[in-house]
Design a protein that fits this description.
Layout lengths: L1 H11 L5 E2 L27 E6 L4 H4 L15 H7 L4 H6 L9 H4 L5 E8 L2 E6 L1 E2 L1 E7 L14 E8 L17 E7 L4 E4 L3 E3 L4 E11 L2 E11 L8 E10 L8 E2 L4
């Protein structure tokens, strides 16, 4: 299962390029309003999901020690900042959640609860750190506001084949990708041990659903760009297995340690 899932992850990490305007196509018939993002969803992301920690265990399950940032694309300033990390100072400053922004919390050992808040907004809740992300379809509908740990996320459906949908022929359901671009994040940590990203960082994610041997998986491919601290994009993926119910769901607060 691991090898087939890995192959699917590597394939699905590639963006399809064309945003979907409707299920399996570019919109409704002439004169008809385009369906809402919820109605047009080519894949179902809703439900409870539990993370699968298949790599980088020491970075994702426990907090690595100060100075452990080998193989990360950091510049000299980022390494200097990481070397000053003090979790007690973060706790005292009320910034225990600096490591729980979307680039961090999505790769932690966590459970997700994904629902539609309304027909244009997907909501992702994490039990780790008790975080809530709102993925809003349509940049014009994304409200302006102060920076937050989870930032402002703009979502769009993407379908392969220029919007036709893979497997969309002869009545077969189309498949696709959810692309999410997140900005307006408060400065935080890529890893909880103080590896920084700045307030101008941009996180791009591609969410895909993969089925294998009767099980359903959610794959989140993350790409963080930050010219202030990174010499190139920080790229990772996180995998989650779908659960039948809320078993194991136990929200707990952020910790800087």
């Amino acid at each position: 299962m691991k090898s087939s899932l890995l192959a699917a992850v590597l394939f699905l990490a590639l963006p399809f390029g064309a945003p979907a305007q409707g299920r399996g196509g570019r919109g409704g018939a002439a004169g008809q309003a385009a369906p809402s993002p919820q109605a047009a969803a080519p894949i179902d992301l809703t439900g409870y999901w539990v993370s699968l920690i298949t790599d980088n265990w020491t970075y994702r399950v426990v907090t690595p020690p100060k100075g452990d940032y080998l193989y990360l694309p950091l510049n000299a300033e980022a390494r200097r900042v990481a070397d000053t990390w003090d979790p007690a100072k973060d706790e005292a400053a009320g910034e225990a959640c600096k490591g729980y922004g979307p680039v961090g919390v999505m790769r932690m050992s966590t459970r997700l609860h994904i629902t539609w808040q309304d027909d244009k907004t997907l909501k992702i809740e994490t039990d780790t750190g008790t975080q809530t992300r709102l993925l809003r379809f349509g940049a014009a509908d994304t409200p302006a506001g102060q920076r937050t740990w989870q930032g402002q996320s703009v979502a769009e459906w993407q379908l392969p084949g220029g919007g036709r949908g893979r497997g969309g022929q002869r009545g077969q359901p189309a498949t696709g990708t959810l692309k999410v671009t997140t900005t307006q994040m408060r400065p935080g940590y890529i890893h909880k041990n103080g590896v920084p990203f700045s307030e101008n960082a941009v996180l791009t994610e591609y969410f895909n659903v993969v089925s294998d041997r009767g099980l359903t998986y959610l794959v989140d491919t993350l790409m963080l760009d930050d010219p202030r601290y990174l010499t190139q994009s920080f790229v990772r993926s996180a995998q989650f297995k779908k659960q039948a119910d809320a078993t194991g769901w136990e929200p707990f607060p952020c910790s800087a340690k």
